[in-house]
Inverse folding.
């Protein structure tokens, strides 16, 4: 019988807690060792040596870890570059798996063991890193969003200061300089984004095709493409919609009929950047405009809800560029 080994890894800023488990057929799993390592290159090499000493007879070794902020990235890329199997799992999946196992204790060591169990029983998909170009553009787009939010806060603060009594002129000047700095940085980061797009012929082609759709600007398109890695990791449209948190969440039991809403359990940056394109599509795209009117007729008191289908259409209409088709969810689920 083939012996499968899974290394469950719980990662924090400074440390890595690893638990190595092997499958033992119908009997379940057996712990072969647990150990703590530094979250650094030295710790990574020590982890590889420690695992190799305990998995010599294994037919397959897979490293499973949580997507803990950005702390997991260096280890994931290190393992991938060494041609090892890596799975990165959402923290929510581990959380609900722990509940299903009725696990009440929470420590780093217990979490590593739990992640190893999850890897053995659920067999998560292998992790694929984002391409270098998309990753750089994603970081630039995210920083641009942060700068826009900071500028909006500063403008609101300045407006409040202008309406306050006897505010010092130096404070107003500081706030105005702060806003000017944000605007300068936004211009610089947008120029950097445009330069990177122009240097990539394939990406420029994709962007040009999508820009034929009315209401979709360059930065909106890039945000969606970068956050989804060009849609390369999705097998169907439903996965794409779920990733953005636009999938429908229903609440019904017996005679109880709860409200139907989107789950919002997904990428918030995608949802936020799609709102204005959805408004534009409702005005300028005739099929989407008619669809929006039909949904509003059925839901006269929930006009904002009617924007969900245009929002989804603006999102999934980018998906054909990855060669996966262009099938959208039925509009009836939003009504």
């Amino acid at each position: 019988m083939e012996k499968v080994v899974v290394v469950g890894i719980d990662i924090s800023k400074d440390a890595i807690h690893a638990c190595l488990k092997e499958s033992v057929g119908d009997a379940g799993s057996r712990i072969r060792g647990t150990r703590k390592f530094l979250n650094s290159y030295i710790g990574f090499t020590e982890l590889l040596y420690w695992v190799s000493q305990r998995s010599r007879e294994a037919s397959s070794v897979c490293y499973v870890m949580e997507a803990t902020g950005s702390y997991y990235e260096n280890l994931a890329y290190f393992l991938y570059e060494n041609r090892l199997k890596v799975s990165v799992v959402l923290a929510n999946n581990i959380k609900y798996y722990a509940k299903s196992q009725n696990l009440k204790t929470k420590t780093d060591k217990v979490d590593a063991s739990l992640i190893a169990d999850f890897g053995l029983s659920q067999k998560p998909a292998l992790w694929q890193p984002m391409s270098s170009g998309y990753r750089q553009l994603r970081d630039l787009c995210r920083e641009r969003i942060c700068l826009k939010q900071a500028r909006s806060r500063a403008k609101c603060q300045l407006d409040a200061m202008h309406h306050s009594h006897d505010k010092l002129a130096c404070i107003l000047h500081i706030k105005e300089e702060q806003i000017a700095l944000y605007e300068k940085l936004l211009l610089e980061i947008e120029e950097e984004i445009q330069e990177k797009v122009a240097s990539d012929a394939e990406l420029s082609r994709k962007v040009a095709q999508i820009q034929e759709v009315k209401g979709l600007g360059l930065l909106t398109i890039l945000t969606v493409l970068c956050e989804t890695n060009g849609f390369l990791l999705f097998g169907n449209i439903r996965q794409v919609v779920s990733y953005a948190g636009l999938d429908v969440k229903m609440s019904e039991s017996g005679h109880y009929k709860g409200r139907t809403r989107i789950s919002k359990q997904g990428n918030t940056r995608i949802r936020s950047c799609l709102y204005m394109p959805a408004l534009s599509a409702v005005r300028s795209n005739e099929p989407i405009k008619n669809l929006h009117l039909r949904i509003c007729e059925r839901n006269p008191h929930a006009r904002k809800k009617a924007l969900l289908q245009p929002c989804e259409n603006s999102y999934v209409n980018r998906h054909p560029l990855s060669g996966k088709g262009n099938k959208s969810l039925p509009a009836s689920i939003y009504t």
The chain is about 50% helix and 15% strand. The beta strands are 4-11, 15-23, 29-38, 60-66, 85-89, 248-249, 252-253, 256-257, 261-262.
